[in-house]
């Protein structure tokens, strides 16, 4: 398989996407203080991050605004309270779930919005709906990606067909999403090669969003990068659902483009992430997450086990077989 | 680069080496209860582990026996108290450091010992001394390996020369040791390919001992495995110096040989590792370890920072530049 770049050079096509508020929001129901979000915004700018994802554009018909913090909905005025007109080099992203977004109501013209990129999250069976949403957002003037979740559960022929469809659309990029943290580097290289093969022909880019159930999020991210993947999702200290994500501090210390720096993050880690952990917000590698990852299952059972402080790992594991 | 095996098949040459007491002993000064060691021994047997390393054969002239638990010295009678005559399929290993072992006094004939494998730990500048020790142990009837530590700091020509010398000796295997947790999978594959190239010609095997500073211990282990490396070091829950090692539960859940099972480990994790952590024994990924790994430095400064509960990560990082 052909690779791109070396360990000493850097690829100008690389974009680092910080998803701390969005994926981390799944841990604390999107209840971040404005100060936290503002400091993260400033930190990301200093660290050379290319995109910061503020949360979801979730439907207020489907979700109760009293049950979640504001970043589940990402109202324009909430983002602007943090970023003003975002007169910086860093772009603003939000995520929109297929079937859970009132996109025709909630996604306004880009000319009137501070948002640059809308990432559409879908499972493989709703690709046509995802494309419809992407086309709508594209029409409104946004950059768009389609993020195919839980790809470790899909078969090759279906992935090929999905990529074929996506590459005929106006979407700008397509993401490999290892929702279950089940993919090994060897598989990630093959998937990356496949996604890049489809995307390059169509003039699109490929991104990666990894989970850390098997402590492979960083490894899978840099192996995907070698194969040509260029949009790289990170979260500070790996904050994200379950075992969390590829840590910003791992990736930004690895990348060779001098614009990236790990130093601003170190201050943020001390002053904002440690207090969050001390408050009892919990994420990161733990045995139940490892086990759902190994079995290529959704982490929901592991999340529940951790919430209940279960440590009967053997029973938990044996029970998992019933979910296959 | 040529690879060995696939994700579905298994390689009969694979040997899993549990180094929990030895590398984990660096965290608690080798003060494990007999019950802990005995249960780990039984767990490893059930899990299909091939070798269990009990600790170091350290010189009692150099080290004070009052300052360390018994597994720093691994007296024959201490091992036998746990394993009897070890009438099992699992073999017993110990580590012997070049320059810190009275090997002519403390290493007896294998016929009189329950130990099977002696692993000789060396830096690249003491390879001749390591070979002398290995030859001595070989004469006494033991299996032997030479483990070249901190190889991320060595240059290619020196590694070639070291491998050349080792391959002319009677040693059975040679280990890649990423002491600093600084090596990326791409580099690990190249190193593995090199080690295997030398070793195969000489009829020897190659092992890997990885550290988790950059959350790459498991990834590097399975990538080395793909390239032909066959002796794979693990520790339960990754217990080991600093950021720790490749976790047994990650690797044993990954390997495809039906003799390996993660289930016995799950009980041990609950009943023995959780209490150890609750007692305040500390290891595993943390920001200071990540930073020494990124900078390819010995973790001693990070270990000290963690001991002092320092969280001024930025100052810590900037200071590290003085150690280069």
Report what the structure shows.
2 copies of one chain form a homodimer. Chain A is α/β, with parallel strands linked by helices and 324 residues long. Helix content of chain A is 42%, strand content 13%. Chain A has 13 helices and 8 strands. The first copy, chain A, has helices at 20-28, 34-47, 76-83, 103-106, 127-139, 156-168, 185-201, 217-226, 248-254, 263-278, 287-294, 300-307, 313-320, and strands at residues 15-18, 51-56, 91-97, 117-122, 143-148, 173-177, 205-209, 231-234. In chain A, strands 1-2-3-4-5-6-7-8 form an 8-stranded parallel β-barrel, surrounded by 6 helices. In chain A, helix 11 (287-294) packs antiparallel against helix 12. The longest helix of chain A has 17 residues, at 185-201. The model of chain A has no long low-confidence stretch (mean pLDDT 97).
List keywords for this structure.
homodimer; 13% strand; globular; 324 residues; eight-stranded parallel beta barrel; alpha/beta
- Dominant shape of chain A: globular
Taken in chain order, the helices and strands of chain A follow as: EHHEHEHEHEHEHEHEHHHHH
The pLDDT mean of chain A sits at 97
* Unreliable spans of chain A: none
Radius of gyration of chain A: 19 Å
Number of helices of chain A: 13
E-strand count of chain A: 8
Strand order, biggest sheet of chain A? 1-2-3-4-5-6-7-8
- Terminal-residue CA separation of chain A: 33 Å
| Main sheet overview of chain A | 8 strands, parallel, barrel
Give the percentage of residues in beta strands of chain A: 5-15%
Q: Identify the biggest protein-protein contact and residues per side.
A: A-B, 40 and 40 residues
Helix-residue proportion of chain A: 40-55%
By oligomeric state, this entry counts as homodimer
């Amino acid at each position: 398989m052909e690779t791109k770049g070396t360990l000493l050079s850097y690829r100008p096509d690389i974009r680092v996407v910080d998803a701390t508020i969005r994926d981390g929001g799944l841990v604390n129901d999107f209840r971040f203080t404005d100060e936290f979000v503002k400091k993260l915004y400033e930190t990301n700018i200093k660290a050379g991050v290319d995109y910061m994802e503020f949360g979801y554009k979730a439907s207020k018909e489907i979700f109760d605004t009293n049950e979640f913090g504001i970043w589940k909905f990402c109202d324009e005025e909430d983002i602007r309270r943090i970023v003003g007109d975002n007169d910086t080099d860093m772009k603003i992203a939000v995520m929109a779930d297929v079937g859970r977004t009132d996109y025709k109501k909630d996604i306004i013209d880009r000319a009137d919005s501070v948002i640059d990129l809308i990432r559409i999250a879908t499972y493989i069976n709703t690709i046509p709906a995802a494309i419809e949403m992407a086309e709508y957002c594209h029409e409104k003037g946004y950059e768009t990606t389609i993020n195919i979740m839980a790809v470790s559960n899909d078969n090759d022929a279906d992935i090929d067909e999905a990529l074929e469809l996506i590459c005929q659309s106006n979407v700008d990029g397509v993401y490999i999403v290892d929702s279950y943290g089940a993919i090994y580097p060897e598989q990630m290289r093959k998937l990356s090669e496949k996604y890049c093969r489809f995307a390059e022909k169509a003039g699109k880019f490929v991104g990666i969003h990894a989970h850390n159930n098997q402590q492979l999020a960083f490894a899978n991210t840099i192996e995907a990068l070698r194969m040509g993947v260029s949009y790289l999702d990170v979260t500070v200290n790996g904050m994200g659902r379950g075992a969390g994500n590829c840590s910003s501090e791992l990736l930004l210390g690895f990348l060779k483009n001098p614009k990236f720096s790990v130093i601003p993050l170190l201050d943020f880690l001390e002053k904002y992430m440690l207090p969050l952990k001390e408050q009892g917000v919990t994420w990161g590698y733990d045995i139940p997450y490892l086990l759902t990852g190994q079995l290529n299952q959704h982490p929901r059972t592991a999340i529940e086990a951790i919430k209940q402080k279960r440590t009967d790992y053997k029973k938990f594991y044996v029970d998992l077989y019933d979910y296959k």
